[in-house]
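Box S2. Input/output pair 1.
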Amino acid sequence: MLLPVLARMIRLGTLHLRMPDGGLHHLRGPQPGPEAGLDIRTRRAARRLLLNPNLALGEGYMEDEVAPLDCDLHDLLDLLVLNMMEGGTHPVARVMDAWRVAKRRLDQWNPASRARRNVAHHYDLDGRLYEMFLDADRQYSCAYFRTGQETLDQAQAAKKRHIAAKLRLDRPGLHVLDIGCGWGGMAITLAREHGARVTGITLSEEQLGVARRRAEEAGLSDRVRFELMDYRAWREPVDRIVSVGMFEHVGLDHYRRFFRSLREVLKPDGVGLVHAIGRSGGPGATNPWLAKYIFPGGYSPALSEVLPAVEASGLWVTDIEILRLHYAETLRHWRVRFAARRAEIAARYDERLCRMFEFYLSGCELAFRRMGHMVWQMQIAGSIGALPLTRDYMGQEERRVPA
């Protein structure tokens, strides 16, 4: 039953398929394209690929019941994604996609207690794991590639400069609230290079400990502090707000509350910047494997789902920038760096975790390279006159701060 389903999916290129009985099949699409191979090693994996393909492929790879055949994982996923974008469909996947869209508000219901559990699932992993494939500053979000030739560290530094320029830190001592501060890199940079006073809030205890230690080591404890806190609990007025890579965890039904919370604490002349993953093709649903193993409760929204919440809050949207292939390049760097230290990671953790991260990094890179995912940066302000008339100040500020 699986063979004709997979054959129907292949619109371009060739999928070489080995079934559990050892039979080898060559599924060729009507259009030329790349070739890749899939080895289905157990009958259980074949059955699951038939009944729940979007979850089964990743789980089968993690359990070594599904493997690339005479190619690497990235080549295999790229072929499958290319065919999916060409209209190749799995009938069960199509039905399940519609079901996920229908119930996505329930999946993304993120009150404070659930939000904390969701964050702990991924971000409270042993921090040494992330040191092995992130940049030196542990920036776990989209970098900014001006030419595409930058190293990962250069591109992440450029991302922080780009965001700082949009925050308009035009005088020392401005109080910045960093919502979802990660391991503290953005907060420390804003204090050290731009003279800001920064409070970072996070729901990850692992990240909190690292961020506090880093601020102390940098001699910035008097200007940078970190708290274990949900954004809904913050009450103090601030001059600036920055949130990088956190909005994807807010949840659809909480968008109005999120921007209303920002409006309540942002001073009338205040400026904010929200940096998040989005989708260019309109509303959708999170891939079930990603939701189960990587980011429970997470969702990358279309801007059409976000802007109504901003409008209802009374905030001014003063600038929106779309970063298209920047995250694809960031993930490529992470994937290559992870592969370079794979043996060390497997020895420290286990093979299953290695396979999970390989599938995650490749799949996400292809989502940005092939499937219409992008990153949006939305600048917001508390009042109509909070910023200059033109955007020229952004470029001037980026050039002022040395690379």
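Box S3. Input/output pair 2.
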Amino acid sequence: MIKPLLSVIILNYNTKELLEDCLNSVELHSKEVPMEVIVSDNASTDGSPDMIKKKFPWVKLIEGPNEGFSKGNNRARPLVKGEMILFLNPDTLVHENVFALTVRYLKEHPKVGAVTCKLVLPDGSMDKDVRRRFPVPRISFNRLILGKTREYYYEDIPDTSTHEVEAIQGAFFLSWKKILDKVGWFDEGYFFDGEDVDLCYQIHKLGYKLIYYPDAYITHLKGVTKGKVAKWKFKVTPIQRKKIRLAGVASMERFFKKNLWGKYPVWFDYFVLFGINIFKIIRYVRVVLLSSY
């Protein structure tokens, strides 16, 4: 048996139908690169594990409790045999040459620590979250308070151009296992949201570049795991949706304390922390209190 070059890790939680479509698309193009596929299941109740065992016996399946995105992906670490790791969302469809082109790019550019392809939404537009700048105070203020997203989403650079970015999205995140091992994979202190940006920050600290590479693309349904897509909203309970939305603000605080604290005057650090907690209160009122009526 040929040793896989690439290990594809897909984290699943109650997305059986989407996961089946995703795995079918992966299998269709699996000959492009020697690979293995690992599905880490977060205690799904929709029959996902049985579906995998029945229809995709070649997939490695590992099951565990639903402890969030980071822990769920990291759970697959002991099973990995490949030199490269691709974190792939179950609400995606892989297209021709995605594996071949992105793997080749990573191999040919030793200074690149992680690469992503273009993510296209069902309506044909690009998923802007695929390329972002780090949420430093100025960038975050412009985006969240002033509504200025041009800098944050690299809107000044055509989405058809390959270029260096600060952060890529966890929906398609390709890196070397040796790099992930150095940074400790995903920080399990994040439950949902922010963990991909944090991982990018740690890779960047090692001196590697992160690249947006649009010569290859996948389709990304997006929002299913957060309960944002009407058709699949039943997959996520109201309590889970609230927990996910609140986790997003908690991630902001964790990222700042972990990576940016001490890079500014101490009074400014506390000012930013104060602002994040005000934002957290506002989100809590909107999500927990107002949605209860």
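Caption for Box S3: Residues 6-220 form a domain with the Spore Coat Polysaccharide Biosynthesis Protein SpsA; Chain A fold (CATH 3.90.550.10). The longest strand covers residues 209-220.
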